Amino acid sequence: MKVAVIGSGGREHTLAWSLVRSPEVSHCYCLPGNGGTAGLPKTVNVAIAVDQLGEICEFCQTEKIDLVVVGPELPLTLGLTDQLQALGIKVFGPTKAGAELEASKSWTKQLLVEAGVPTAFGETFTNPEPAQAYATKMGAPIVVKADGLAAGKGVIVAQTLAEATTAIAELFDQGFAKIVVEEFLPGEEVSVLALCDGKTVIPLLPAQDHKRIGEGDQGLNTGGMGAYCPAPIAPPAVIDQVQKQILQPTANALAKRGIDYRGVLYAGLMVSSTGEIKVLEYNCRFGDPETQAVLPLLATPLEKVLMACVDQTLGQLEPLQWHAGSAVCVVVAAGGYPGSYRKGDEIGGLAEAKAQDVTVFHAGTELKEGKVLTNGGRVLGVTALGEDLSTAIATVYRGVEQITFDGMYYRRDIGHKAL
Ligand code: AMP
Ligand code: GLY
């Protein structure tokens, strides 16, 4: 079986790493891939960017790809799945209509309200004045969200009304036509990634991300600085509740709108101190870095699971098998991230890290003349497994400490909250 993985991050390295472990997978093409996917068995990088839909389609058709797995949201929102499906190519990832779930906060809010899925109370606005009036009426803290893809910069949790005013003005100034203003939900976040074939929904083990750059969850938001799985905040009974009250009703609501959703339903959830669970957001793809902590625990071959989504046979699949214990992923970033950072620094210690029993997933790296160089803000995701979370944490940091490059930065408290 020939697979193609679209994307170049840590998530895509993890997807390719999982796929090629299966004897069923004979070839894996990463478009465009990174310095890590370049070194995987059975794998080649193909220099086609994720937004070059025509080139991706042509490549997949010429190479007779059996399954395309789309990593990031951008090609999904551009309609890559629709174009591949039109060519008769199997693809894991929702159509453009399904990707609205991530691309439009107001669309999703309406869908959730219609489906009776618990979410933060809020409203959509097309002008700053009524948005401001609504925020004033609701009071701070309050959350202001751009209605569109914003690379992680579209959500402002305003602690004061003055901050909300600035946020509302700035988002409209940036050109967003709509914004959502919603109630602030206190609690602890958890990411539940679920597989969906359009009818059946199967949740994966829950994970927790660490979105802020600094230890103790301080400082600027990032794409995610580390993750662990399973997250004890969402034990099996809670996942059962999430499945029944959130995931399945969402899948049903999508189907009711005529959307044939085959891909990941990624629910970003807030769990309150009393155990109430509400949806903060949906993403239409695997999480990054959650994937680097979730997939290494999955024992069922990934290609089998993804194919079942695409073939709409998830309901007939045997229950997913998982390795016992915990996984933790620590992201190693370039100095300055999430602000400006340098590229092109040589990365050392990768073999030494591996010797510590960790898996180093590459994110922003490239292989050049035999050297692995930094090529992005989030550079690596180092993952360790352990019989429990504290063992996994101890192992992962032994691995991370072997790695060297100029200006490297990582959080030292990944997973500590759950101990
Ligand atoms: P989102 O992209 O909607 O997940 O928002 C990004 C981050 O903002 C989330 O991971 C939360 O930390 C925070 N956030 C979003 N919505 C809310 C809310 N209603 N209440 C509290 N925090 C929120
Ligand atoms: N880890 C956050 C995301 O994938 O959006």
Distance between the termini: 41 Å
Q: Could you please say which CATH topology of the largest domain applies here?
A: D-amino Acid Aminotransferase, Chain A, domain 1
Query: Rough shape?
Result: globular
Please count the helical segments.
Answer: 13
Rg result = 21 Å
User: What's the number of structural domains?
Assistant: 4
Strand content: 25-35%
List all distinct small molecules, including ions and cofactors, that are bound in this structure: adenosine monophosphate, glycine
Topology:
Layout: E1 2-7, H1 10-20, E2 27-32, E3 43-45, H2 53-62, E4 67-70, H3 73-78, H4 80-86, E5 91-92, H5 100-103, H6 105-115, E6 122-125, H7 128-138, E7 142-146, E8 155-158, H8 161-173, E9 179-183, E10 188-196, E11 201-203, E12 208-209, E13 212-214, E14 218-221, E15 226-229, H9 236-256, E16 263-271, E17 277-283, H10 290-294, H11 302-310, E18 326-333, H12 350-354, E19 359-362, E20 365-368, E21 371-374, E22 378-386, H13 389-400
Parallel strand pairs: 1-2, 1-4, 2-3, 4-5
Antiparallel strand pairs: 6-9, 7-8, 7-9, 10-11, 10-16, 12-15, 13-14, 15-18, 16-17, 18-22, 19-22, 20-21
Helix pairs in contact: 6-9, 7-8
What does this structure look like?
The protein is built from 13 helices and 22 strands. The protein is 30% helix and 26% strand. The protein starts with a strand and ends in a 19-residue tail after the last helix. It has a five-stranded parallel β-sheet. A five-stranded antiparallel β-sheet has the order 12-15-18-22-19. Helix 7 (128-138) runs antiparallel to helix 8 (161-173). With 419 residues, it is α+β, with helices and mostly antiparallel strands. The longest helix is centred in the middle third of the chain and has 21 residues, at 236-256. It has four domains: 2-95, Rossmann fold, CATH 3.40.50.20; 121-183, Dna Ligase, domain 1; 188-316, ATP-grasp fold, B domain (D-amino Acid Aminotransferase, Chain A, domain 1); 326-418, Glycinamide Ribonucleotide Synthetase, Chain A, domain 4. The protein has helices at residues 10-20, 53-62, 73-78, 80-86, 100-103, 105-115, 128-138, 161-173, 236-256, 290-294, 302-310, 350-354, 389-400; strands at residues 2-7, 27-32, 43-45, 67-70, 91-92, 122-125, 142-146, 155-158, 179-183, 188-196, 201-203, 208-209, 212-214, 218-221, 226-229, 263-271, 277-283, 326-333, 359-362, 365-368, 371-374, 378-386. Glycine (GLY) is lined by residues 209, 224, 283, 287-288, 290. The site of adenosine monophosphate (AMP) has 13 residues, from strand 7, strand 8 and strand 17. Its cofactor is Mn(2+); Mg(2+). This is Phosphoribosylamine--glycine ligase. Its EC number is 6.3.4.13.
